[in-house]
Design goal:
heterodimer; A: about 325 residues; B: 8-stranded mixed β-sheet
Chain lengths: ~325, ~325
Amino acid sequence: MVRVLVRAVASVVASALMGSIIVFLLLRLLKGDVATVILGQTATREALEELRAEMGLDASLVEQYLQWIGGVLQGDMGTSYAAEFDIAHEIWVRIPLTFTLAFSSLILSVIVALVIGTFSAIHAKNWRGTTVDILSQVGIAVPSFWLGLLMATLFAVHLGWLPAGGYVPLSEDFVRGVKSLTMPVLALAIPLSAVLVRYVRSGMLEVLDEDFIRTAQAKGLTLRRAAWRHGIRNASIPLVTVTILQLGQLLAGAVVIENVFTLPGLGRMLVVAVGGREPLSVQSLALVLMLMILTLNFLMDIAYGLLDPRIRGRGRTVLHA
Amino acid sequence: MLEINDLNITIGPNEIVSIERLSIPAGRRLGLVGESGSGKTMTAMSIIGLQPREAVVTGSITFSGTEMVDRSERELSDVRGAEIGVIFQDPLRALNPTMKVGKQVAEALRLHKTVPRKDVKTRMLELLEQVQLPNPAALARRYPHQLSGGQQQRVLISMAIACDPKLLIADEPTTALDVTVQKEILELLARLSEERGMAILFVSHDLGVIQAISDYIAVLYGGNLVETGPTSDIVEMPRHRYTEALISVNPGHPEDISASLGEPLVTIRGSVPPSGGFLPGCRFRGRCPHEIEQCAQEPLISEMAGGHTFKCWNPVDEAAPALAHSAELADGRR
């Protein structure tokens, strides 16, 4: 078990480093850098060169990368050039919000998908199943940010039930915290659960044809109860795979939704940093987001073993990023 | 105790099963034999309403005096598991792979509240012991894939008999098992049926297995019940030409096979037509070597002493021993 864990952690770290190099290089392809942002379009070439030298941006790419990653390994991600805040600290205080947002959306979508998908599988041959099918099609087609904007218009502007933006930490005021997260979580969870519902439905339809469901009925369970007691867990196994594939989408969605609802999470910070051409911030954020995805990925991998006793103890370390 | 009258099962335009009359007295064992596709599993499953969704069942199936056809799922589920137990062909697939076997057996007890909640576990272990599983306490904590095929089938049997049913439906319960295990399971089922006065409907394509366990035999061909009666009558004095053919092609017990090694395997010529592809009249027409003109008409039921009935226009001679005809019947010997 220890060996399995070590291998899993090593592969997470290796993937994250690879990713950070790619992000580092991509950032250099963008037009303009932080010096032009700080000094403006009219700055002289000499002034720009001087500022770049001052910030260490004239060093070779390899040198710049090694310096940054060396700092990261010691917990120092550097300082924002323009705003001069400590990047590591800034990320650290924003992680809980983004993680809460992504994780609650994930859990909510999985639960909703299991309930609705099972319902639709049991009623596959009548109008109830068809209705769910159509709704999930619509759900998949709706982008999160647009749904977020619509909800904000309805619930915040017209009805005034929920705040249109801003965030109150759950630890400070739980009720207001939940209220501030409700719409962002829903905006992320609705399209995701629409995707997952289809997989639960087809997985459950397959499971309902299995002999052990007939055994459960022969014991005296109705089809509905047999589906809940014996079907859900078996149908969840393929769902884990699909959910893992959706994790990247989910965090990308979270970045956008944080901007729609002005939530001070990693996503807001990322958009500001890209606009300001802040290489250190963007690199560090990308690294953290990747680590988050890989961690969730790892947790899902463990879920496989918990759900299916047949693969337990075989030391699955395959990551699906 | 179980009475089937004018049972008809159709899927779309095709008639899958058509049985005029079939019954099982309390505590007795009936073997339902037929080739694959003869409708034997469909018939057995229709008793507890577990036929495929697209199948339409008409007629009457009464169990302990209550009608089972067209009852709601809720009403049926009160009978299933409580008064009628079922075991299936492929024991590994019939068990939930993600649930410990002890829990699956206990579920059967909890569902029908057979024993007080606190006694469920003790009773579950007792059941595992009754089906002769070694070390029940340890075994209950295993998952199905950790057991052997024979152990899996024993677990299924313990689940099926958990609530002391009056009838056990066994749908090809030994087909997926190897021969020595098969024998043990048959002995176990016979013993349980005698100890508990539990009737068994035993479904199989294997006449040898049916013969070993049944008091009565019912022969299905193309969804029609062609012959039924006490086991010894059917085996020693079959009247229907299909039953006769079925007996002649049975290679017998493994010990006896060595005697016929080297000889060609006897088969019934042709194969069962797809449903809807039967000629009018007797369904065995076209494959039967004793066909006469009259066979184009629907055969009538002939009754003999001892409850032996058959549906054949040109039956086997009452005096003739069954196997005398087998040579002319079989393709393989021509």
